[in-house]
Amino acid sequence: MSGWLIVVGLGPGAEAMVTPEVSAALAEATDVVGYIPYVARVPERPGLTRHASDNRVERDRALHALEMAEAGCRVVVVSSGDPGVFAMAAAIFERVEEDATRWHDLDIRVLPGITAMLAASARAGAPLGHDFCAINLSDNLKPQALIERRLALAAEADFAIALYNPRSKARPDALDAAFALLRETCGDDRPVLFARAVSTPEEHLRIVPLPEARGEMADMRTVVIIGSSRTRMIPHAGRPILYTPRTTP
After folding, report:
1. Residue 116: helix, strand or coil by DSSP?
2. How far is Cα 182 from Cα 226, in angstroms, rounded to an integer?
3. Domain Tetrapyrrole methylase spans what residues (predicted)?
4. Which long-range contacts (CB under 8 A, 24 or more apart) does 148-154 make?
């Protein structure tokens, strides 16, 4: 097969956070596939066709990309952040697994990007400096009961927790429910970071103790990081530094 398919991450928003490797792939592409706002981040140019689609058609998008690459196109599938973190890389490979013989010889690659939790952590300091986990609060692809179980176990294990897709119009109460569950399990004033649109002109960071955290403080452009019991704040000019020490008692 002469075509190829590369799944890339565009980072959290700023052009400077797109890796040179990803930029090179986009420069060679004949076709770019992805969710509408992510495709819009790729400039139009002669020889490039952009295929934008809704967020709830990942399986269709993945198959379309594979079929174009099979036909000889140079296809880049774009995600925000990193393509392997709650994004399109897994969707592509789900489709590949369904018909592995068909796609056996197709050149498929994944190029990493800076995901939202890492960009947010860096802006605030190092709240993910020790053991942590990431949980997607969207129930589109998994049951709510599983989300709640993972939240409870992560809190019990005293991980710092990064929450993706914390709140949407379809799930306006999801984040408040998560905070209520965490308050029951944690029972302390550990810090909660709300990091919105990191690296863009709309960037905004806010840190509050867990008892004061409210769902309305976030939207779908926000990543929420809940510290562990050992996460600390250091007073500092400009804004405090939030970090979790690597040393253990």
Report:
1. helix
2. 9
3. 5-213
4. 148/177, 148/181, 151/178, 151/181, 151/182, 152/181, 152/185
